[in-house]
Design a protein that fits this description.
Blueprint: H1 4-28, H2 36-61, H3 66-70, H4 72-126, E1 131-135, H5 143-150, E2 158-169, E3 172-184, E4 189-201, E5 210-214, E6 224-226, H6 231-235, E7 236-240, H7 243-262, E8 271-274, E9 277-282, E10 291-294, E11 298-301, H8 305-320
Helix pairs in contact: 1-4, 2-4, 7-8
């Protein structure tokens, strides 16, 4: 964890990031109203074209107007209408293309703004608790990592992965993936998981393979089920290939940290320690990097207190995941 001085620096960096985000919004955000004269011109041209077409078709289709159309005035009206409709027939597509260009430019700038907002927001948010933070939104998460997490997930029919952050904590390299798993039923579409998936590459290989899962949610054949008399045992089930060592490790080191982590979330996390890999699911129940978009005004930053609390608890869990020694207390 960061010291008090380092934490103050992280807070200052976070505020700086928010200031830069707001400055970018004011400098680069292009509201649609700025192009209102272009849209108005396109609308007027299109309206005139439609009105002329309707008038001309009305005059041509009604027998009552036949004498008028055969007169010199009627012939003049016909020629005038055909000429202007031909002109508008060329002008209307050009104005439409111009309008699409303006819309495209607007939404392109808005997309850039949103992407920069997320990069600044997510990076500074992660720097509260981690080091060497790198925001990688367009980097695909390795299939092997996702397959491991999917084996922990409840039954689902659709999965979506959003922001992907790589960072480090005391030499442990981490992947934090914003994910949502949904299940479609006959009645509705249910969200079965919304939160973060955390994969860490430990500096040392653990002496046992252990799965820590919510009570009565899953079984792992071929592994020992460890019983706990504490509150931890009322919330979690533990399966391991090293019964005695894993029990001591959880009792003395890891159990309290996981209980604290679980207390700040919408559900219990799944945790797996496999050789030198650590896997944790964080069912937050909300988008951890939520940015509420308000077009033409601002991007509203979600309250960060809850996610920062979870990240601090997560960093404490990662710091204690080391090969167990009998001297640990």
């Amino acid at each position: 964890m960061k010291s008090e001085v380092e934490l103050k620096k992280a807070v200052a960096q976070f505020k700086k990031g928010m200031f830069e985000l707001e400055k970018y919004r004011k400098d680069s955000y292009v509201p649609i109203s700025r192009y209102r004269h272009v849209y108005r011109f396109c609308f007027v041209i299109f309206t005139i074209y439609v009105v002329l077409w309707c008038i001309f078709m009305l005059l041509m289709s009604k027998p009552i107007f036949a004498p008028f159309m055969q007169s010199h005035v009627g012939q003049y009206v016909t020629m005038w209408s055909m000429l202007h409709m031909t002109t508008f027939a060329f002008v209307t597509p050009i104005s439409g293309v111009l309008m699409l260009f303006c819309f495209g430019k607007h939404f392109h700038r808005l997309h850039d703004y949103l992407e920069l907002a997320k990069e600044i927001y997510v990076t500074t948010l992660m720097e509260f608790c981690f080091q060497e933070v790198e925001y990688r939104p367009n980097v695909k998460v390795p299939e092997k990592v996702l397959d491991t997490f999917i084996s922990f997930m409840p039954q689902h029919t659709h999965k979506k992965f959003c922001e992907h952050v790589e960072c480090e904590l005391d030499g442990v390299k981490l992947h934090l993936i914003n994910a949502e798993f949904t299940k479609k039923t006959d009645e509705a579409k249910l969200v079965v998981f919304n939160g973060l998936l955390v994969e860490g590459e430990l500096k040392e290989t653990m002496h046992f393979e252990t799965y820590i899962v919510p009570k009565r949610k899953k079984r792992y054949n071929g592994l020992y089920k460890i019983q706990f008399d504490s509150d931890f045992g009322q919330v979690f089930d533990v399966f391991s290939n090293e019964h005695v060592l894993a029990k001591k490790y959880i009792d003395n080191v890891l159990g309290a940290k996981l209980m604290r982590l679980a207390s700040h979330m919408a559900g219990c996390p799944y945790c797996a320690i496999i050789k030198n890999k650590l896997y944790i699911t964080l069912p937050l129940g909300y988008d951890p990097y939520g940015l509420a978009e308000k077009v033409e005004t601002e991007i509203k930053i979600a309250d960060t207190k809850s996610i920062v609390t979870v990240l601090k608890d997560l960093s404490e869990v990662i710091e204690v995941v080391k090969p167990y020694k009998e001297t640990a207390s």
